[in-house]
TrEMBL record:
One Pfam family, short name: DUF4468
Domain of life: Bacteria
Signal sequence extent: 1-18
Coiled-coil residue spans: 131-167
Domain DUF4468: 39-110
Organism of derivation: Dyadobacter linearis
InterPro entries, sorted: DUF4468
Protein name (Swiss-Prot/TrEMBL): DUF4468 domain-containing protein
Keyword terms: Coiled coil, Signal
Length: 180
């Protein structure tokens, strides 16, 4: 029962934090997912627990970790998560986790869509701009048939972004669950 409840919580994170089809951006209009936690652990215990999470989540710790500094409490991971997306099968991301006594901060910044049929593509603010442009076109369209087609395209664009949001928030949620 405990595992079922945990799974439901993880899957709900994406829906709770999703921004109705928009990807989260920082002040510089760059993709930015973040989370923090306050587990009752010392810096060293929390760093070790975070390392354990990396090994369990990504399988091979050495392949996933691109930088680690236990003294500073910084761990940077570059890895992949599967996506539900029309163009991409996976997202490659950079996740930086900074730990201190009783606290961690996690930030996902760089995000690339990966497909078996084309080179990786940077996921950026342009995905949100495409949605905004599509919404403007729908408002301006008078032809019902064309408007319905544009609305269907908009649903697909938003679903793709929601797929990315769900994957990223589930990843951050699993870190939170593991460290608590």
């Amino acid at each position: 029962m405990k595992y079922l409840a945990s799974l439901l919580i993880l899957f709900s994170f994406g829906h709770v934090f999703a921004q109705d089809g928009y990807l989260p951006l920082d002040a510089d209009k760059q993709i930015h997912y973040s989370d923090s936690g306050q587990p009752n652990l010392s810096k060293d215990e929390l760093f070790k627990k975070t390392q354990d999470w990396v090994g369990k989540t990504f399988g091979n710790y050495q392949n996933a970790v691109t930088f680690e500094d236990p003294k500073a409490g910084i761990l940077r991971i570059t890895s992949y998560v599967p996506l539900i997306h029309a163009r991409f099968a996976y997202a490659r991301f950079d996740l930086t986790i900074t730990v201190s006594d009783n606290k961690y901060d996690a930030h996902i910044t760089t995000l690339d869509g990966v497909s078996p049929v084309h080179s990786p593509e940077r996921i950026s603010a342009k995905e949100n701009e495409t949605i905004s442009s599509q919404e403007v076109l729908i408002k301006a369209e008078n032809n019902r048939k064309k408007r319905a087609e544009l609305e269907e395209e908009l649903k697909l664009l938003k679903a793709d972004n929601d797929g990315i949001n769900t994957a990223m928030y589930n990843l951050l949620g699993s870190l939170k669950q593991f460290t608590n």
